[in-house]
Amino acid sequence: MFNIKRYDVEEQSSDKNTSSNATLSAQERLIKLNARLNKNKPHKELQEKEENKNKDKTQQQQQQQQQQQSSSKHLRYDNNDSIETNPYKQKRAREQEDQHHLKKHGKKWEKREKELKDSDLVPNDVRLAMKAEAEAAEALARGILQPINSVPEPTAASAPSLKSTQQQQQQDNKEDEEMEKKEEEDKDITSEGQKQEAEGGMDDVAMDAALADIESALVPLPTFEVKEITAEEKERAKSMGIPDWLAHPIKIEPETNTPIDAPMFRLSSRLIKQCKKAGITECFAVQTAVIPVLMRARHLGDIRKAPGDLCVSAPTGSGKTLAYVLPIIEILSQRVVTRLRALVVLPTRDLCVQVKETFETFVKGTDLKIATSTGQNSFAHEQNILVGETYARPNGPKVLGGHSRVDILITTPGRLIDHIKSTPNFTLQHLRFLVIDEADRLLNQSFQDWLYHILTAIHPSPERKLLGIDGSENIQLKRDQYGFPIHDAIAPAFLPSFFRLPESDVEDPKALSVQKLLFSATLTRNPAKIASLQLSDPQYVAVQEGGLDGDEKQKYTTPAGLTEYMIVCESSEKPLMVLHLLYNRNVRSALCFTKSVESAHRLCKLIQLYEKTRTAPVSSSSLSTIPKDNKVDSEIKERSKGDESQGDSEPDDGNNDDDDDSSSSSSEDSDSEDENESSDDDDEEEEEEDGSEKSDVEMEDVETTTKSTDPFDSSSEIEVDPSISTTTTTATATMSAPPIVVAEYSSDLPKSKRQSILRAFNKGEIHLLICSDLISRGMDLSPVSVVINYDVPVYMKKYIHRVGRTARAGKTGTAYSLVEMQEARHFKEMVSKAGHWEKIHRMKIKDQETKELVPAYTKALAGLKEALVSSRAASRKGIHRRARK
Ligand SMILES: Nc1ncnc2c1ncn2[C@@H]1O[C@H](COP(=O)(O)OP(=O)(O)OP(=O)(O)O)[C@@H](O)[C@H]1O
């Protein structure tokens, strides 16, 4: 018969301490904790205690001897009356039997492993399998699991009826009560030490660990006030289909920092050391809120109550990554067998690389293995990394429960689905954590039904037995030499397929399911999207300014150190504005976002030409007239056809929205950074439709910089200022400025080039990095001090992520948005609706300020067409060369 009590024991053999601890009742734990706390009492008291202890020890030894004799007797004579009538003794006998079994089999496995150890003939995989088997044998020996086939199938006669279950429960309760009574009596007559021995002889180490465990369990979790929900608010959320938990998050002030070694985090000294080494002495607000919650259920093999899922919304640069990286490492570091237990899904390859680097920083000192799967490498190469060459072979060995060479996988959704479908022995059944970072972005991606596939792989339907990756029944459950299934081959989520688990409730165990963790600076509140995640017992944590009294109208919180400006200008003036920021305002370490890869390329070329030109003499001929048509070349004209709505008055910008980055959503995932704004912000649009009030935006306070002498005004031929139409012009201020290095960054570039650009930017060797939205989300480029929105985004979420590339981790930063005249109304509407209008300062740039830039700019503009043609030819050559290789 399945033994409920035994399920309290840890599944992982590695965790010896917790198994002993799990057998303690809450009352006992408190007694022991009190004993430990007494250690801190005054010296005299301690002395007395010490004396008593010594006395007790002698008594204890005597009593132990007696007990051992009596229990071994009971074991030998099963029919002995006393053991049958005394459940307390029964329990003890059972435990001793387990210990005996464990010793016996443990030794066997140790011996076998020793024999094969260091043998060159034994491949690593076999060693791993042996390790798993040893662990499984140990777990089975401890009686943690009983195979379903060892339990008679429920028949009409044998299946427990509700009544018989109730009877059984009553019986159990009675037994428990008796046991408790007996234990109470014991308490009076035995010393604490005797009691420990009687309870299975906890050694000092185990005791210390157990007590530490209890003590840390008693460290209260941080409490955050939750605003009371009014009936009206409840009704409103309900009418919009938003569940209560999502409509009313647990709010935390951004400044809620806590020392990294605070007991509530329960981080090991190893990890604290790593953090301090990395310059992290305090946990930021989001980490303060999230880490203790995740660390609450930190035992890997804990198959009791499944922990609830978390949705976390916190400003850009507020440290969301570490909020999941630290607890995942801490919890997984106790694992024995390598299994895929944490999966982090991200929207782009670059982000995967970044998050992997973060994991690698803190994983030092553990033997956890981390991998990325993004489609940058060949599929076969990734398969080899994930499951090993042998197991990845279609005709290779199929292991029930799969096989993994990594503990933590960081991946883009498309490539992950490919592995779920096509990599033999790759399985998500052992997952303990599923992290969806940049969650709102990912939830807008529906290609390949990635979420459905993941959720299916994690949660098999109750009818579906684990029959192997191909669903065929020919794969047998892996068993040990005694015929027991190897426990580690079965994930907690799949346990019910093989083992009869009790129905869940707080006390009774159930299979631990994966904990889903969602993170974003702009988390969706779209009920349909949230529902698609099948969250269990979720909580919504939001780091938000103003805490409970925070401005409800303020939809997203931006970093405290961020200063935002908008410059309203003609579209033709935008390049000049960028030059003004660079050369007159000394802007450096800046990211400049354009709306497309092509647009980024042209702007980059133009500024590079300007840089070349500004120190060279400017001939009057090149300045006599500026192209009548605002477009500098027919190529741009051609490219801009697709975007009529934006007008066609940009000198350097084709206005094409055919963003190359977005078009590449293949099964290889590309960088599904798709900068397709409409898809990115689907839910934002939906929320608008959900009845939130339309803001009443007035435009009078939007100051525009309308230049009287617009050198690129398409309506008239520009007269060149006489002062600069001389044969040589000296643009004094800009000429003397040190060289400025500008580069572009887009998905068009090969991986190695991208990496070298980021490295150079991080070292300060690139002053302005012009990019599409490839790096607008999640990327943590520490030196960014300025963000320029060359093309303002149409949706607020994108704005928040872009400007959030600066002012990260408590630093300061500035964002400039170049708002075209015709966009000004929309822009104001967008930010007002998000409750953000007050934060944006209007900035006027006077003609006088840009005057000196014009001559070299005009020349650069004239040379742009040629530069674009030659760069295009060069890039074609490069593509051919790469293809030939
Ligand atoms: N407790 C901390 N102390 C000091 N620095 C920290 C701490 N936590 C995180 N950081 C640093 O803050 C920076 C931003 O962190 P992270 O990238 O996790 O932010 P984020 O909230 O995920 O931002 P985004 O929403 O843009 O993805 C990183 O450089 C990280 O190393």
Automatic annotation (TrEMBL):
GO MF annotations, alphabetized: ATP binding; hydrolase activity; RNA binding; RNA helicase activity
Acidic residues biased stretches: 645-691
Biased composition (Basic and acidic residues): 43-58, 110-120, 179-198, 628-644
Entries under SUPFAM superfamilies matching the protein: P-loop containing nucleoside triphosphate hydrolases
InterPro entries in alphabetical order: DEAD/DEAH_box_helicase_dom (IPR011545), Helicase_ATP-bd (IPR014001), Helicase_C-like (IPR001650), P-loop_NTPase (IPR027417), RNA-helicase_DEAD-box_CS (IPR000629)
CDD domains, per the entry: DEADc_DDX51, SF2_C_DEAD
EC number assigned by the record: 3.6.4.13
Ranges for region Disordered: 1-124, 150-200, 616-731
Residue ranges that the Swiss-Prot or TrEMBL entry lists as coiled coil: none
Biased composition (Low complexity): 59-72
Helicase C-terminal domain residues: 698-858
Enzyme class: hydrolase
Reactions listed under catalytic activity: ATP + H2O = ADP + phosphate + H(+)
Residue ranges, compositional bias (Polar residues): 15-26, 616-627, 705-717
Keywords: ATP-binding, Helicase, Hydrolase, Nucleotide-binding, RNA-binding
Keyword field contains Acyltransferase: no
PROSITE patterns the UniProt entry points to: DEAD_ATP_HELICASE, HELICASE_ATP_BIND_1, HELICASE_CTER
Residue span(s) of domain Helicase ATP-binding: 301-541
Domains (record comment): The Q motif is unique to and characteristic of the DEAD box family of RNA helicases and controls ATP binding and hydrolysis.
Function: RNA helicase.
Family stated for the protein in its record: Belongs to the DEAD box helicase family.
Name this polypeptide is given: ATP-dependent RNA helicase
Species name: Lobosporangium transversale
